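Worked example 2:
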Amino acid sequence: MIKHVARKEVREIVRDGRMRLLGVIVIILTLAALAFGAQQAVRAQEARDNAMARAEKQWEGQGERNPHSAAHYGTHVFKPTSAATAIDPGVSPYLGRSVEIKAHQRSLASHSEAQDSGGSKRLGSFSVASVFLLLIPLLIIALGYGLWSRERERGTLRQVLSTGVNQAELFWGKTLALFFVLLILLIPAALIIVGVLWGLGGGDADTLVRLALLALGYVAYFGVFAGLTLFASAIARTSRGALVAMVGTWGLFCLVTPRAATEVSGVLQPLPSQAELGRQVAQSLKTGLDGKTDKDVFIEAKLADALDAEGISEDALEFFTDDAEAQRIKTYTDGLMLKFTAEWENVIFDHYIKELDDQVAAQEAVMDAVSFLSPYVAMRTLSAALSGTDFAHHRHFTHYAETWRQGFVDSLNKAFADKAGAQGWSYRAGPELWKKAPAFAYQPPRPSYGLDVHRLSALALLGWLLLAFGLARWAAGRVKVV
């Protein structure tokens, strides 16, 4: 009986020309968004490859110079691109794509797509995710708002129930019909998406797992709106009332709540300006995090301890003049000073960047909590997280880049201390040293990393799905036959 009910509902939906038109429009928009996203992904990959090649050429071709001077000269490292960004660019267009690597400085990521694109990018991004998050729910509402109310208005509901069909069978038949029509519309688009991403190099296991998790998430998200639409159709007196109620609900969930939550998170956890952050870092570089420790005193104390451990008297160095051994020891001492200076700076940089990252994470935690007020917020968070384009993935990359920077600078300082010898600061290294720089081998986290970070949003989405179908099933058992 459920099969017969579903077949009848599918036939009625398909016969409605307006529904076919809406479906075609949404699919065209989805494919257009995919084409746009794929173009952006290809362009980003080409730009990254060119920039990486240029940075490597500049680093290895810098000629002969002192290793520490080379550390000042520095280089750049670049965030890897993913085929999944063609589906959901997340916050990646607004965060930097490269990090400058140099001594005595920890740089924030720069060269964001929004920054390079002027004001147009900051108006919002057109993507497959934006179509799925905003337009597919409207399509579901258009397909399902009259499933109960239209039959009641036509007087056919009483006739159907008089044949012995119970309301539970009607509910499951109408639910299956709604999902079947939606699948017929979306499966071709989904296959095209997989094919395009495969062509972009997304055929690896991690990308396929990401796509599978994204598919599950969006099925749950669409299920929320399907359940709420069936609920509204069952309890509303008229089809028009059900439609107005669901469009209003869509506007509240997808437009009003996310905007309000963004403003609230900014008020609850404001971020410092770049100028303010720079002033705090500059002050702490002089007087320490406690504001009482002098940088030079700290470095001198560390140097004295290191020389004492080596059995070298710092006072004895003053009696050497042109002796080569004295110059070697002095060079070694200078190398130690560079090492301890870097340690001092790294502690300061790590503290303030972690503090900034924690503040951004706190804002995201507010959005995770708001997921219980809006399924749109929950799925928007999970969509970016599963695509690897949320802030947590960006933070994972910048943390690795900083760890690599510290090792990179330390290796150059060590080369100076070990090889300069009697030449001191006159020592010059050549291309053989630049080619020995540690490889930047960043690996993105596993596909489920986003779920680990945003468990609350995942639970909220699941809760919304259970609530929506619970309400729909409850309303189906109490639908009024008039």
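The chain has one domain: 2-270+358-412+433-477. DSSP finds 18 helices and three strands in the chain.
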